[in-house]
Amino acid sequence: MTARLPFTLSLCALIATSACTRDESEYLSTLPTFSGFKVENLTHTNSKYFYKGDQIRVTAIQAQKGSRLYEATYTWSFAPSSSNSTKRVYYDKENADPSWTFTVDSLATSTLLLTAEYKASGTGVAKPSSVTTTDGSTANYLASTLYSRITLQRAFTVLSN
What we know:
The protein is mostly beta strands. It is built from one helix and ten strands. It has one helix at about 5-20; strands at about 35-40, 50, 55-65, 70-80, 85-90, 100-105, 110-120, 130, 140-145, 145-160. The strands form two sheets. Strands 2, 4, 5, 7, 8, 9 and 10 form a seven-stranded mixed beta sheet that branches. The chain has a three-stranded antiparallel beta sheet with strand order 1-3-6, with no helix packed on it. The longest helix has 17 residues, at about 5-20. The radius of gyration is 23 Å and the shape is elongated.
């Protein structure tokens, strides 16, 4: 009977080890990556410039969608003006490129800023980084295992009419 004990323990260890070796990537949460902003002047449709009073629609383009992200909160601002907006979505169900429409209300060099905050529904991966996107925007990625933040920003000059 005692000779069977080491065999039984070895068998239990083998089963436990094989049960834990399945592919962990199916539970991995990944952040989206952004390639920059798509900017549309809805007032002066053929203009690449902003003028005070123009209505602007901006979309943050995801080069790659994220996965296993429970909640996303998108906070937009166009500083130094008072324009800002916040929207909360359940990312795994609604992962479209975030967008915002606003009216330019000040004359100045202004900064368009998107702060995207994500809550992971799987195992998170911490990979902080900062990159310059294809349109010259700056993207900063700050990640931890359960909560992550991405900031995407770009400067614009607002002209007088």
